[in-house]
Amino acid sequence: MKKTLSLIIAFVTVAGLISLSWIFERYPPGLTSDLASPDFNQACESSVSQQPLDSNGELTVSVWNIYKQQNVGWKTELTRLLDSSELVLLQEASLTTPLKSFFAERPGHATMVRAFTGFEIANGVLDVAAVPATDICAQLTTEPLIRLPKSTLVASYPLSNGESLLVVNLHSVNFSWGLETYTAQLKGAAKALAAHQGPVIVAGDFNTWREGRIQLVNKMMAEFGLKEVKYQLDERSQVFGFPLDHIFYRGLHLESAQAWQTQASDHNPIQARFSLM
């Protein structure tokens, strides 16, 4: 019964998105580190940063699909994540006036990749870090059915042991039963992984709602020596019995991880604490 209801909801959602997709504007890959006055004119940016992302060899990473801030309580939940993390990776961030105001009042360095714009509001993935990234790049992959892009943000951060941490914040293609487009998006991330020799975190909403997707993700991560985080408390959001959100890592020591329930989004946040090797 639950699976049938989920399928009906998914069908209605896809039909609605297809009918409304014409109102959304699509652009080439673009990112911004100025949420107050975003331009999204550059696909990649570089900067000089001497500050390490970790705090005395410890690094806490949080991952959350914030559901375009549609649910009550998102500010409280996001504040909790930011207060307890050196790095927060958001998916489905909607650059509304309340979100701009929220970040304007907080320390930290935010970078957003625009997936698309609707009603003059940009939507996409967003990184919030304790220090600036040294290199950041935007990637987009278009959903085959609804024709709206999903975004990926690839960033590098200095660590206190002299290494550079590569971070991939991924919001995977959702409305596609076949694996062609899903694979193409993962290959975009794989190019960044292949060019990096140090520690890595790949995390986000992978939309792994069927076995074929999970197998594909696990295969690619294993090829680059990444392991999946295991949780002491695992309340990750699921569809058809499969968890949607994941954190994979390499070159770091996992200390602890948890995923707890929230009503502030249709996804539950996940958090992992690492120490440097």
From TrEMBL:
Annotated GO MF terms: endonuclease activity
Organism domain of life: Bacteria
Protein name as catalogued: Endonuclease/exonuclease/phosphatase family protein
Pfam families assigned: Exo_endo_phos
Family annotation (InterPro entries): Endo/exonu/phosph_ase_sf, Endo/exonuclease/phosphatase
Sequence ranges assigned to domain Endonuclease/exonuclease/phosphatase in this UniProt record: 64-267
Keywords of the record: Endonuclease, Hydrolase, Nuclease
